[in-house]
Write a structure and sequence with these properties.
This protein is α/β, with parallel strands linked by helices. It has nine helices and 14 strands. The protein has two domains: about 120 residues, NAD(P)-binding Rossmann-like Domain (Rossmann fold), CATH 3.40.50; about 140 residues, Succinyl-CoA synthetase domains (Rossmann fold, 3-Layer(aba) Sandwich). It comes from Rhizocola hellebori.
Amino acid sequence: MAIWLTKDSKVIVQGMTGSEGSKHTRRMLAAGTHIVGGVNPRKAGTEVEFDGTSVPVFGSVADAMAKTGADVTVIFVPPAFTKDAVLEAIDAGIGLAVVITEGVPVHDTAVFWAHAVATGNKTRIVGPNCPGIASPGASNAGIIPADIAGSGRIGLVSKSGTLTYQMMYELRDIGFSTAVGIGGDPIIGTTHIDALAAFQEDPETEAIVMIGEIGGDAEERAAEYIKAHVTKPVVGYIAGFTAPPGKTMGHAGAIISGSSGTAEAKKVALEAAGVKVGKTPSETARLMREIMG
């Protein structure tokens, strides 16, 4: 079992014919992802070969969905065109849009996020600026390496791409139902809380790892949600314990104001909700091992 992305997911790639899109389409296909098409209005009607697999190119998301039954899109288009690509996916009514692109203007993200809400939240947006979703052994939508962990009983939700990979590697012998990289921008589509709710409902996810980072209050809100709604064990890690106060670190969302948003404040909030919080990724993995026996 997995959340949002399963072995039956039919995936299209917006920007498949570009350099990043084609590179990662090849990797997703090798991971067993059921990729049914690409989208590029200028190359509609052509096909692209990936190691013996021929993938058709469509002129629009709506056309690709009508011809293939696609229910997931992975978006690899430059930042300037990302807003239009996501709006197109939402208007076509696709169920899941995974936005990999980094450097999308926050205003553009606000526009497509608001459009998704206004049209009834039919499209779940993951990202932008994220590594995507991997359900090991079933499907892989994005840039998470497919060979670092197998399928298993842990659910993972993370703001950080590289820490997603590290945690999957550290716990590779136990394995994952689904790993979701939600991205670290100030506005994102899918939140920690969305993933926690889905993992709580998934019968084959037994425990959850949540990776946050300094800045904002997403982790504090997730702690409140865990306290009220999550019965499965949760282990957490907050990136940025050693960050100097007042500095903006890495991700655009990692801005601290006063004591709010610090790693320590987030740790306190999570521990108050019963979450075990590691000081390092390796310690966090060890805490999860203790839970999984």
